Amino acid sequence: MMIALALVVLLLTGLPIYVCLGLTSLIFFLTSGTSMHIMIRTLYSGVDQYALIAVTGFLLVASLFEKAGITEALITMVKRFMAAFQSGLAVITIVSCAIFAAVTGSGPATVATIGGIMIPAMIRAKYTPKFAGAVASSGGALGILIPPSNPFLMYGIIANQSIAALFAAGIVPGLLMAVALSITSSILLRWFPNYSMHSEREEKKQAYKKMTLLVALKAIWQAKWALFAIILLLGGIYAGLFTPIEAAEVTIFYSLIVGLFINRTMNLKDVYAALANTLRLSGTLIILVATGFVFARLLTLEGIPQALGRSIAGVSTDPVMILLIIMFFMVFIGTWAETFSQIIVLTPIFLPVVMKLGVDPIHFGVLFVVTAEIGFLTPPFGANLFVGMKIADISLETISKSVLPYILTYLIVLVILVLFPQISLFLPRLLFGQ
Amino acid sequence: MKRILTFIDERFEEIIGVIVLAVVVSLIFIGVMMRLLFKSGLPWQEELSRILYVLVVYLGASYGMRTNDHIRINIISNLLPPRARKVLRVVTDFIWAGFNITVIIMAMQVYQKMQRFLGESAVLKIPLHVVFLIVPLGFTLLTLRLIQGYIQGGPFWESHTEIQGKGDAPP
Q1: Are the beta carbons of A44 and B134 separated by less than 8 Å?
Q2: Which of A152, A177, A143, A141 is nearest to A375 (CA)?
Q3: CB proximity under 8 Å: A 310-369 to B
Q4: Nearest CA to CA, how far is B79 from chain A (Å)?
Q5: What is the pLDDT of residues B104-127, one digit of tens each?
Q6: Residues of A in Cβ contact (< 8 Å) with B94
Q7: Of A76-85, A327-336, B61-70, which gets the smallest average pLDDT?
Q8: A304-316 confidence digits (pLDDT tens)
Q9: ipTM of the assembly?
Q10: Nearest to B77 among A14, A245, A338 (CB)
Q11: Of B22, B62, B76, which has the smallest distance from its Cβ to A275's Cβ?
Q12: CA distances for B117 relative to A30, B112, B123, B128, angstroms
């Protein structure tokens, strides 16, 4: 209890989160007389993890893809195809996010890349900016559920689980979520016709006429570099050619070749800028892991997970009920906390509790990532909302309200995933036979 | 001479960090290619890239000081009037520096202790205590950049109105 209180007070003062985690541990280690040497060595060994390099790698992939012009071609293709299914720009945005999620591991990066193109397009087509912003922000959260995914990498490191299995577990829930978000968009447009001033039907008719086999093939051909990247990345991982960690680096070199030599949209200056940006982002992010590991050690020493497990067991003995309580708690924390710190702090607390109840750690990872997605969409710390509101040029309050139906969608899917673990576990069991 | 000083002042972590990051990424890629094409990887590749990656993280963290990118929760400070916000920032920066300096001192103690045990990395035989110096070095850079912010006419709190770091912060 004292630890939680100390951490919350420090966090609220506005100290950098890495300092809060480190300082709390420092105070409690010193007062309990534990040797500090372990803690200090963890500042090295916590970062000295091969899998962390992939987190940085996928950040770099996101910046390079944009500059190489791979993303834009992908969106053009999705637009053409979705026209054939007579769906509007909102569904096109969500499907583009889902496909782009297969090459990036970051939520805000997905909003920035897909939203950067689709939000202005929706506003031009007379959708209200608040609706356009909400669609792109909620679709962007798919970035971390559909593999590759930085939060899955982080969870895999902390929970000591197979990253390839976690990636596989995210695919079906991710697709389910994309369908659910598309349905929500369609319902919203039907119920609130003023969300789109433009006649949807007219737009659909126009687009539908243009679709022929030739156009379809042309669209695929135009997006070939994006599609090939997905095949290379996921295919390479599951064919066993390279590990998820190496996949990031292979994709980096792939996008360099496409950007520098094939599309020629990139020069060496862009590559430097992408590297510098990635350096800054990963430095400030991964240093959290260093002190986060120290903090996790403190929690274990103090027996926090065991104590929590006992008190939860007092409330209910039904695994599903307990899982729902934990999910509720994590959604609550997720609205307040930054995703990586949330994974670093909460995994060592809750994983032992749920594993005792017979919950599969891979399944728990999927649920965890879905709660992190909801955290992306809720103020005060919704990273996706910050990106979406900037592109749509609306206030945080406006976008927070318009994103509410999508948050509800996420919650419903979360409950479905809790009730049916097979949805997450089906693919990893098929691939890895666990 | 002046140019060298300006370089160290403005771009030291950035340029060194970018080079090391490029090396890490290339090392892993070359490792994959060697394994796929010649059926034999480089035994030292994983070890070296891990050591260099720790360096990347600490250089990047220090580089993030210049752009005020460290992830923090500003909910209370955003509610405060500007004056009180400054006071809070100065107080927390003091605590921050104090934490960093404590870590540096303890890390140097650990370094001396490690020297006596003479551990080496598995393949490259790099003494572990030398590699461990990245931690005190990183925290020293972080602290210097923090102090530098004050010397160069007050830190960055004016430009910093976002709720939490920057909106584009991953994951």
Answers
A1: yes
A2: A141
A3: 336, 338-341
A4: 12
A5: 999 999 999 888 887 888 888 888
A6: none
A7: A76-85
A8: 887 887 888 788 7
A9: 0.88
A10: A14
A11: B22
A12: 25, 9, 18, 9
Which of A201-210, A280-289, A330-339 has the weakest average pLDDT?
A201-210
Distance (Å) from the alpha carbon of A336 to chain B's nearest alpha carbon: 9
Positions of chain B with pLDDT under 50: 157-171
For testing contact with chain A, the best of B19, B54, B73 (most A CBs within 10 A): B73
Give how far the C-alpha of residue A181 lies from the chain's centroid of Cα atoms, to the nearest Å: 15
Mean pLDDT for chain A overall:
87
Label residue A427 by pLDDT band (50, 70, 90).
very high
- In A, which residues are within 8 Å of B63 by CB distance? 276, 279-280, 283
pLDDT the model gives residue A250: 93
